[in-house]
């Protein structure tokens, strides 16, 4: 209805990502899962006890999930999930964000187990070094049963809301780094694409997913996945 012109967020971003991946023959319509409408019971699960989110739902419904790590690499502090899990020792939160932008939630910061605060205009080399070192320490301190990775693209250079200066190649490398380190420990990972306030972010997300697939980090399980040698491409398994 034209409302998107009043806000810098690309509301069509995810549809564009899907179309890019279809063009590259990575996805087809038969591989897409349409979300079912939430039942009343589902909504009550979400909206009780201070808006329990899907991660708490995971703890309660999925056998074998008792420890989780949130790796939040969106440009903004993740104060929502930090407040949700403030007193939940099962959840380890690592948050890397621009210290000068919204929300600046001091109370929520108490929930962060590994906090990395960045300055305006942080660039690729410094950013990737800090991400890698702190993920390594996070996984040593708390080896989870599952990782939820917030892969915001608002770290991209030119993003007026994120205020950082990470190149498109830097974002692709960041995602690869996260997947290598987590999958190298045989831990399942869920990636959400989150923030990103420029029209070109959809193409970057698609390129990153294609890179992860090409390296064997997503798709059919590869026994040769390693957290080391991150510059050495892994051959993807054969696709029938």
Number of helical segments? 8
Distance between the termini: 42 Å
User: What's the overall average pLDDT, rounded?
Assistant: 85
What's the shape? globular
Q: Quick one: how many beta strands?
A: 5
Order of helices and strands: HHHEHEHEHEHEH
Structural class: alpha/beta
Q: Beta-sheet strand percentage?
A: 5-15%
Radius of gyration: 18 Å
List low-confidence stretches: 223-240
What is the share of helical residues? 25-40%
Structure overview:
This protein is of the alpha/beta class and 240 residues long. 35% of the residues lie in helices and 11% in strands. It contains eight helices and five strands. It has a five-stranded parallel β-sheet, with helices on one face. α5 links the parallel β2 and β3. α1 packs across α8, α6 runs parallel beside α7 and α7 runs parallel beside α8. The radius of gyration is 18 Å and the shape is globular. The N and C termini lie far apart (42 Å). The C terminus is likely disordered.
Provide a concise account of the structure shown.
With 240 residues, the protein is an alpha/beta fold.
What is the secondary structure topology, with strand pairs?
Elements: H1 13-23, H2 40-46, H3 54-61, E1 68-72, H4 79-84, E2 91-98, H5 106-109, E3 114-118, H6 124-141, E4 146-150, H7 168-183, E5 189-192, H8 201-214
């Amino acid at each position: 209805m034209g409302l998107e012109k009043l806000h810098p967020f690309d509301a069509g971003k995810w549809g564009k990502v899907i179309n890019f991946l279809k063009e590259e023959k990575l996805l087809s319509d038969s591989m897409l899962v349409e979300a079912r409408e939430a039942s009343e019971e589902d909504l009550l699960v979400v909206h009780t006890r201070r808006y329990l989110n899907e991660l708490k739902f995971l703890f309660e419904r999925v056998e074998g999930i008792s420890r989780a790590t949130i790796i939040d690499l969106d440009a903004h502090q993740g104060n929502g999930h930090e407040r949700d899990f403030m007193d939940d020792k099962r959840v380890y939160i690592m948050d890397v964000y621009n210290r000068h932008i919204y929300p600046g939630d001091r109370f929520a910061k108490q929930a962060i187990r590994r906090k990395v605060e960045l300055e305006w205009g942080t660039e690729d080399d410094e950013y990737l070094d800090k991400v890698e070192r702190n993920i390594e320490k996070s996984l040593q301190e708390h080896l989870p049963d599952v990782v939820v990775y917030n892969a915001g693209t608002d770290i991209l250079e030119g993003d007026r809301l994120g205020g950082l200066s990470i190149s498109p190649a830097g974002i692709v490398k960041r995602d690869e780094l996260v997947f290598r380190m987590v999958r190298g420990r045989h831990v399942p990972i869920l990636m959400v694409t989150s923030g990103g306030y420029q029209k070109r972010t959809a193409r970057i997300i698609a390129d990153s997913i294609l890179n992860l697939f090409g390296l064997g980090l997503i798709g059919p399980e590869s026994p040769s996945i390693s957290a080391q040698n991150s510059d050495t491409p892994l051959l993807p398994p054969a696709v029938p």
